[in-house]
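Sample intake sheet
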Amino acid sequence: ETILPLFKQKLTHITQAAGLDPNEVATWQGKDIMLTSDVPYTSLTVAPLKSKARCMEKVENEYDGDVSRLVDIVRASIVVADEDQLIAVAKALEDEEIIRLKNRFKEPLFTGYSDALYNIEIEGMICEVQLHVRAIVAHKEENHLYYEYFRSFF
């Protein structure tokens, strides 16, 4: 829990360095992009820590018991409006200790969904930064339903 304020501070700096207002509500076609039914995405949305139960489930079901593969206990989303902002955030992230980059813009999911998942190290903790484009994340909920259904077959 002590890592969360430092993570948020670092990502606020990254978001601002890219020319974004971290608190700006992300919109698409005049509508707020919703994270939950009553909470919109903002340019920077820091999630609460992943629950212990969800961590254990993920390690068991997705990582064959290998806890070292769990790299998203501390996570956040940065939502950008366009390619210029995407590049600006990516450049700002270059100053961080990047452990891994999963570039799903280059290789989208089978549903067509794309984003970039950065794992950065902060004080020995690997944290995840999800980089999204508004036009794509606006359709994430619909795509995620297909993803959840079909991933059980693979």
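Comment: The two ends are 34 Å apart (CA to CA). DSSP finds five helices and seven strands in the chain.
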